[in-house]
Amino acid sequence: MRQYGLYGNRLGERMRLTRTTNGREMLGGYVQVTVHTEQTVPRRYRDRFNAADPPCEHYLGEEHGSFREVAIKRLASLSSHFVSDHWWDPPSPESDRIGALIDQPPPVWDGCRTIDYTSDYTTGGTRRLVILCGEEDGDDFMAHIEVHKRPHGSASIALYTTEAPQKIGSGPAVFPRAVDIARNKMRDAITVLPQVNEAINTAVGLAST
User: Fold this and answer.
1) d(CA 96, CA 148)
2) Hey, is 188 helix, strand or coil?
3) What's the domain of life for this entry (predicted)?
4) Mind listing the pLDDT tens digit for each residue in 68-94?
5) Please, what's the largest Cα pairwise distance for the chain?
6) What is the 8-class DSSP label of residue 172?
7) What is the Cα 193 distance to its own chain's centre?
8) How far apart are CA 163 and CA 104, in angstroms?
9) In angstroms, rounded to a whole number, what is the distance separating the alpha carbons of residues 51 and 102?
10) DSSP 3-state assignment of 152?
11) By the 8 A CB rule, do 184 and 175 touch?
């Protein structure tokens, strides 16, 4: 965290890590980051505790396994465009599939990085961010999936990207490269994002005519 404090401001003012006069760590000037110790770390993160990159509570009760994960998730959220999302109520195969994705040991989808966290804000539940692209040399945009499973079983999934939107079209079709990478990584799981799946099928239909 000390190293991040030296360069985080280069990522933008909303990524700057500062310490208040009373010793509180603040990310972006207004979001408090509570750093856990070995005594306060949540049970799910005890086995992976690292004092150099400790588990943190961020925002409104979001528990993360490390500060690095907090920073990656915040940067992804601040820099991305919304592409599409969908809520699924139980009982349904789709809500079960999202739940299985959250529970699947990482990495998922051909080695994609995952960031797992929990949230006590309003609905609670478990969440996972999956980075589809943007971490490899040559990647010129980022795309990521966020999934959320509520305690009562409903589940949501959303696609985001830093791809510049196209000036023609609407909906997910405005982000054709993000849609394409989601299709390639998620394969048949893309059906849990019905609007994205529809955009894919429409593009295939147009290409065949």
Assistant:
1) 12
2) helix
3) Eukaryota
4) 999 999 999 999 999 999 999 999 999
5) 66
6) G
7) 15
8) 28
9) 26
10) coil
11) no
Q: Residue 28 and residue 31: Cα distance in Å, rounded? A: 6
Residues β-bridged to residue 88: 155
Q: Which of 93, 82, 90 is nearest to 191 (CA)?
A: 93
- 3-state secondary structure at position 32: strand
| Residue type at position 89 | D
Instruction: Pick the closest to residue 81 from 150, 2, 165, 181 (CA basis).
Output: 165
User: And the tokens for 57?
Assistant: 């509570």
Residue-wise DSSP of 47-61: GG--TTS--EEETTT
- Retrieve residue 133's tokens: 């692209």
List all residues 6 or more positions away from 105 whose beta carbon is below 8 Å from its beta carbon.
Answer: none
Domain ranges of the chain: 2-78, 81-208
CB of 129 within 8 A of CB of 146? yes
- pTM of the predicted model as reported, rounded to 2 decimal places: 0.88
